[in-house]
Amino acid sequence: MSQTAADAPVITGDRPGSFPRSVLAERHPALIGQVRAAFPYGPAQHRALDALLRECAEGVIEPPGPAAHDLDRWREWGLDEHTGRSWYEVPFLWAESFFYRRLLEAVGYFGPGPWQGVDPFRPFKLAELRTDETAAELAAPDRLAPLPAEERGRALLHGSLWGNRADLGFRLDAGNGGAADGPGHPGAPLVADDSAALWSLLPAGGPGTVHLIADNAGRELLADLLLIDHLLRHRHAGHVVLYVKPYPYYVSDATTADVVDALRRLREAGGAAGAAGERLWEAMGHGLLDVRTHPFFCAPLPYADLPGDLREEFGRATVTVVKGDLNYRRLVGDRHWSATTPFTGRTAYFPGPVAALRTLKSDVAVGLGARTEAALTAEHGHRWRTGGTHALIQVRS
Ligand SMILES: O=P(O)(O)OC[C@@]1(O)O[C@H](CO)[C@@H](O)[C@@H]1O
């Protein structure tokens, strides 16, 4: 069934027991606690964190101070309209984005001062680069090495897709600890799989430009970088642009510093992963791999509101690959769509071919077959949408 925005309600946290409500009421306070415990913050930062905690628990949305560096930008993004309202009643996407903005402000990230630029999530991201799971993933390219390039490409695409499950915000929920034991794992059937269409946009030897809008640092980014190396090495793309966040966001979203950490981790891994790390390091030096960012990547807005400069950039890409759940919400619109609403219709506005690679971790889903949706709901209830156990690849050529 096709649907327009007018009949698909915007997702908010107003319903007790709903997924967004649990994020706002439980995940955010837990995150404040984790960040506080990870740094020797001073009294002013503790007071600001206490205030944010109170505000999340019982209060209404407060604006940033009048001297905030980005006040005008947030005004354009709906601040005046949402100030003074409950966190639960404003659009979920807006509330989450603004929460991360406020958390960074509370710990002094935006400065001026000695804590300016100190990423409050960095200890968690660095720890992830040192886990056994990460080490196992970095050994995988050695096992893939004897396979034909096409098969390796498919495996690396799936690695990048399922890498999206390694999102640190998602793992804050106690109930999500078991996601790894659910039906989802690399190789499990996808709820939608347009990967053939994706590969047909990227024939080997083609001079294409791939734009990849990154999601999480750590394991997901390592897998993305291995895929990018494959695309460049086998000439599926002559140029790759990797878009990252301009500041820490949704706990583990990748920034430029995280790309550097990931490239260092790849290089020290040795073997096939290490060789990929060396090639990527050089590719950056030669401008074959560009890392870019833009304030819009931390905006509480859908991609339908892309600013003109990004619209032009994406319009020039052979394909833009959009990673992860949050980017998916922004790509199709953070609304209660019917799951059978066509993906092609929802992304028709996008200025060029676009591919979504995402594990399902929120209420939003479009582009599924009616039978697929019915089977998923019969087997898992609502949980297939939010549990991170299912994944999709959707393409609009
Ligand atoms: O974009 P990602 O990393 O795949 O997922 C981000 C995410 O965990 O954060 C939101 C809740 O905070 C959810 O909508 C979504 O599942």
TrEMBL record:
PANTHER family given in the database record: DAMAGE-CONTROL PHOSPHATASE ARMT1
Organism name: Streptomyces carminius
Cofactor field: Mn(2+)
GO BP annotations, alphabetical order: DNA damage response
InterPro entries: ARMT-1-like_metal-bd_sf (IPR036075), ARMT1 (IPR039763), ARMT1-like_metal-bd (IPR002791)
Family indicated by similarity: Belongs to the damage-control phosphatase family. Sugar phosphate phosphatase III subfamily.
Keywords, alphabetical: Hydrolase, Manganese, Metal-binding
GO MF terms, alphabetically ordered: metal ion binding; phosphatase activity
Reaction equation(s) it catalyzes: beta-D-fructose 6-phosphate = dihydroxyacetone + D-glyceraldehyde 3-phosphate; beta-D-fructose 1-phosphate + H2O = D-fructose + phosphate
Pfam families cross-referenced by the UniProt entry: ARMT1-like_dom
Residue ranges occupied by any Damage-control phosphatase ARMT1-like metal-binding domain in the UniProt entry: 24-370
UniProt name for this protein: Damage-control phosphatase ARMT1-like metal-binding domain-containing protein
Domain of life: Bacteria
Signal peptide: none
